[in-house]
Write a structure and sequence with these properties.
The structure holds two protein chains of two kinds. By secondary structure, chain A is an all-beta fold. Helices cover 0% and strands 49% of the residues of chain A. Chain A has strands at 5-7, 10-13, 19-24, 31-37, 43-50, 53-56, 65-68, 75-79, 88-95, 105-106, 110-114.
């Protein structure tokens, strides 16, 4: 499968636990984007990363959220001490270059439920 | 305040009807995309428009970018049940770096 791979597809956490979401971009893509989607809403930008660098994290909450895209391995979106309001679908997208034309390839998402 | 407003928010029509979805903003975009998302899946890119006034056709779908690059429309001719889904416009702001901003979405349902 040459598409963007996200796991887990579904994740259930209790308040206060940590959630780790992983994203492997398409082969040859070095740019990764994370978006959050609440039910029946559009996608909200969170963070844009290139290998080993955070380029734009203007959409990410200042506390409890962090993202990385190491030289080897998938991109990770980490949410510490989750709260009910973190329940959402988190989508990862990749592009082979800077996405100034907006052409992103999305994964199927990771759905986080916080109990 | 949403940067990209879509209308209508919900649309339920019969097979064979035509429809238009609008995407409006007060900001100028260097490019604008339309995506379609089905339940439980990620958005899939349908088209990219970059030139003011540009019109692109994809089978029964016609996309137009406004002359001032602030708005766009998606027109579907003779809608089919397979067109059902969430339609999202998205754009890259002029001078806005690489961040893709999504619209509020239009949920389309086409019934037999």
């Amino acid at each position: 499968n040459a598409g963007v791979m996200q796991n887990p597809r579904h994740l259930v956490r209790r308040r206060g636990q940590e959630a780790r979401l992983r994203c492997s971009p398409m082969k040859g893509h070095s740019h990764v984007y994370w978006y959050r989607q609440l039910p029946e809403e559009g996608l909200k930008f969170m963070v844009y990363l290139q290998k080993e660098n955070i380029i734009d994290e203007s959409g990410m909450p200042k506390e409890r959220f962090s993202a990385e895209f190491p030289k080897e391995g998938p991109s990770i979106l980490r949410i510490q001490q989750v709260v009910r309001g973190d329940s959402a679908a988190y989508f990862c997208a990749s592009s082979p270059r800077t996405a100034n034309t907006g052409e992103l390839f999305f994964g199927e998402g990771s759905r986080l439920t916080v109990l | 305040t949403q940067l990209l407003e879509q209308s209508p928010q919900f649309l339920s029509i019969q097979e064979g009807e035509n429809l238009t979805v609008y995407c409006n903003s007060s900001s100028v975009f260097s490019s604008l995309q339309w995506y379609r998302q089905e339940p439980g899946e990620g958005p899939v890119l349908l088209v990219t428009v970059v030139t003011g006034g540009e019109v692109k056709k994809l089978k029964r779908l016609t996309f137009q970018f406004g002359d001032a690059r602030k708005d766009s429309s998606l027109h579907i001719t003779a809608a089919q049940p397979g067109d059902t889904g969430l339609y999202l416009c998205a754009g890259v702001l002029t001078g806005g770096g690489n961040k893709l901003t999504f619209g509020t979405g239009t949920q389309l349902k086409v019934e037999l």
